[in-house]
Write a structure and sequence with these properties.
Structural class: mainly alpha
Helix content: 55-70%
Organism: Primorskyibacter flagellatus
Mean pLDDT: 89
Shape: elongated
Keywords: Cell inner membrane, Cell membrane, Membrane, Transmembrane, Transmembrane helix, Transport
Largest sheet: none
GO molecular function: transmembrane transporter activity
Oligomer: single chain
Protein name: TRAP transporter small permease protein
Subcellular location: Cell inner membrane
Length: about 180
């Protein structure tokens, strides 16, 4: 049973967490599709002795898309690689300041990727770029995952920044909760 006095983030942050989870699930299905397509490609080449046209390219695009669209979900889970020795040694106030500084820098990087990713997507859309393979896949679909993924990541970072700055100390994220001394 949960503690009724436990901190609950504002509705907008809970909604964002649900969106991040939905994109995490979509990313997982993209990885599953890439695995299945790889198995199909191996079967067609090895068993049937035929060449493949679209499989390698599809797998590459799916894995790239899954990586980018899964950014916000991994951020929500605090799954990105990070050095947590220093924050673990700091008192709560100093840990809060450090978290705000690190997130502000990460937000700046994500905003730059969003900006340039949008330019790349828009250019490929306007010019109707296609891959140079026989498949001629429209590149705007793949390029759309850059601004979409980094946009969601940026919004999740802003939510985490709000939590780091204003949430009560017990609501602050615990790095690697599986190693907590409970």
């Amino acid at each position: 049973m949960s503690d009724p006095t436990a901190y609950r983030p504002p509705l907008v942050l809970r909604a964002l967490a649900a969106v991040s989870t939905a994109f995490g699930i979509a990313a997982a299905f993209m990885i599953l599709a890439a695995v299945l397509i790889t198995c199909h490609m191996i079967f067609v080449r090895s068993v049937l002795g035929q060449s493949t046209i679209w499989q390698t390219e599809a797998v590459i695009y799916l894995v790239i898309g899954a990586t980018l669209l899964g950014l916000s979900y991994v951020q929500k889970l605090r799954g990105h690689v990070g050095v947590d020795l220093l924050p673990g040694l700091l008192p709560v106030g100093a840990r809060r300041v450090l978290a705000v500084i690190v997130m502000a820098l990460t937000i700046a990087m994500a905003a730059a990727m969003l900006w340039y990713g949008w330019e790349m997507f828009h250019m490929s859309w306007e010019r109707n770029w296609k891959s140079e393979s026989v498949w001629k896949f429209p590149l705007w679909i793949t390029y759309l995952t850059v601004p979409l993924g980094f946009g969601l990541y940026l919004i999740q970072l802003l939510a985490d920044l709000w939590l780091a700055a204003f949430a009560p100390p017990e609501a602050l994220p615990v790095p690697h909760p599986e190693r907590s001394p409970d």
